[in-house]
Amino acid sequence: MKKLSEIIWNSIGFLLGGFWALIPLYLFASYLFKQFGLSASLSEKLAVLVITAITVGFGGVAHEEDACKAIQSEQKGETVRLQNEIAVLNKNIRQICAERDSLASKLEESKRVFREFAEDTAQSSPWLARKFTDAVALVDGEVVSHLRAKKNPALKAAEQIREMSREKREILRRSKELEYQLQFYEGLFPWLEEFKTVPADKAAEYVHSTEDGEYDRVRNWLSPEEYFNLSTIQRNQLALDRYMSRKKTDWDVGIEYERYIGYLYEISGFRVTYNGATQGLTDMGRDIIASDGMKTLVIQCKRWAKEKEIHEKHIFQLYGSTVLMNLETGGKCSGVFVTTAHLSELSRKCAKYLGIEFVEEKAYDNYPLIKCNVSKSGEKIYHLPFDQQYDRVQICGKDGAMFVRTVQEAENNGFRRAKRWVPELDF
């Protein structure tokens, strides 16, 4: 319908535009038809039909020409658009190829760095630190390259980042050296993992226990008014309560667990030496040494979160320390590993192979903390857990010696706190 209407309008336009040229054509056609013997009326009608046909024909031709021109114009515009798109695609392809080449180069560099990781057999701390910083430098180099190659290059920023990267690389190298060195020491001496969480002001105290016979440590937990105004039983019990409810470091928690495990062995008939509490960092992994006259146990205790895992290095340390003790004493000692956590599968296999007994998920429980000792002279003296000689006192095997929970209970059983808080030792 649209095409027909265009033809009609083109025909009308042609008819109006060429009206004077059609009159002679009309007269000629009318005369020609009359020569064939047609009547004047019929000849005139036929002449009109011929003129109409010619007009419509020229109108259709004009329409086709216009349509052709429109199509040609449209095709030309489409061709230009396609050419522009092809140009953009070619540019993108070139950019992708350049990025691919850059990534390939960086990948090869990364492969080189990690290949050195795999092939180098030195495995020293400085070596690892350098390799780590090399890997970090690859990332920084990528940022610098991007700043230089982007549409509006940021050359000054790129240079600043490059300089900062150089400084960061040196700092990271030194930091990693120290980190790997610490990890190496912790592998040799696993107890360092716990000691490094101790506050600085407490560290020296744990390493070198000072014994001052003139100072009553009850004062650490009481105000001067409480210390001088309360009765002996009241002030000692208040100090014990506050000591038990204090905020504890990981080291404190570890010593507390060692004392608990030692208590369990003592009430089972073992004579217990609390090596970890008395020797500090020089205990060589022998937290407790327990003997019943027939066998001697070297016990290592780990009070860790239940979900944590004990690794084989702890088993190896205990085994080595046990072997060394056998060499030193000429005896036959065996190792026992007790923990609140669990052992890894490899640790269990190692422990079984090396003859190390282990107890997993052994939780801490409240127990009577006050040690009531009977000396050789028959004196009955009790010790609070913060007293200087608490961890040196042994209860097992002594008639009348006991563990109690309260100061009142100790006093009721005829025990008194040691004078000057450094009692005479009977072993």
Please give a structural write-up.
The protein is of the alpha/beta class and 427 residues long. The protein has 3 domains: 2-88, no CATH class; 120-188; 200-421, 3-Layer(aba) Sandwich (Trna Endonuclease, Chain: A, domain 1), CATH 3.40.1350. Helices cover 61% and strands 10% of the residues. The protein has 14 helices and 11 strands. It has a 5-stranded mixed beta sheet with strand order 1-2-3-5-7, with helices on both faces. The longest helix is centred in the first third of the chain and has 80 residues, at 40-119. The relative contact order is 0.06.
Point out poorly predicted stretches. Answer: 421-427
What is the 3D form? rod-shaped
Strand order of the largest sheet: 1-2-3-5-7
Rounded to an integer in angstroms, the radius of gyration calculated over CA atoms is 50 Å
**Count of DSSP strands:** 11
The total number of structural domains is 3
Proportion of beta-strand residues: 5-15%
Mean pLDDT value: 76
Helix run count? 14
SSE pattern:
HHHHHHHHHHEHEEEHEEHEEEEHE
Which structural class best describes the helix and strand composition? alpha/beta
What is the class of the largest domain in the CATH system?
Answer: Alpha Beta
What percentage of residues falls in helices of 4 or more residues? 55-70%
The CATH architecture category of the largest domain equals 3-Layer(aba) Sandwich
Q: Please give the alpha-carbon distance between the first and last residues.
A: 123 Å
Largest sheet: 5 strands, mixed
CATH topology of the largest domain: Trna Endonuclease, Chain: A, domain 1
